[in-house]
Design goal:
single chain, mainly alpha, Arc Repressor Mutant, subunit A, three-stranded antiparallel sheet
């Protein structure tokens, strides 16, 4: 019986390992994939390019990172959310907002060891990505 294009593409163990990692951890960037599966960076880059060319993965550049997602599993909103939640500060902001709905900026900033401008920057990314909403109260 003839193999499918996906079966042929995943015959190599390294490529299969990379593909399975991206499926289980969508939105992971190149260096994180390399660290987690412990293969040389050049090998990981080569196989990721191959999988993108074979339309098994999609590559999305966000800022300085190339992030990888399985084809057809996530829409653009999901990809943006996954990308933001893979970053420590945005993830911590979302968790704090989930535990404290309606919290103000001053209360939100407590416990974060970053400047107010850094926190504001990450909040703006979350608002722009439609992960959180900004509601002005008072003045």
């Amino acid at each position: 019986m003839a193999k499918t294009k996906e079966e042929k593409a995943l015959e190599l163990e390294a490529r299969r390992t990379i593909y399975e990692f991206v499926v289980s951890s969508p939105g992971t960037h190149l260096r994180e994939i390399q660290r987690q599966i412990d293969l040389p960076l050049g090998t990981v880059e080569y196989h990721l390019k191959y999988l993108v060319d074979k339309e098994m993965l999609v590559e999305k550049t966000e800022g300085n990172y190339k992030r990888y997602y399985p084809i057809g599993m996530y829409g653009s909103v999901d990809k943006k959310l996954l990308s933001l939640l893979r970053q420590e500060i945005p993830r911590r902001i979302v968790m704090k907002l989930l535990l404290n709905p309606g919290i103000n900026f001053k209360a939100l900033s407590e416990g974060f060891h970053v400047s107010a401008s850094t926190l504001s920057y990450h909040l703006s990314k979350l608002v722009k990505g439609e992960v959180v909403r900004k509601i002005k109260k008072g003045r």
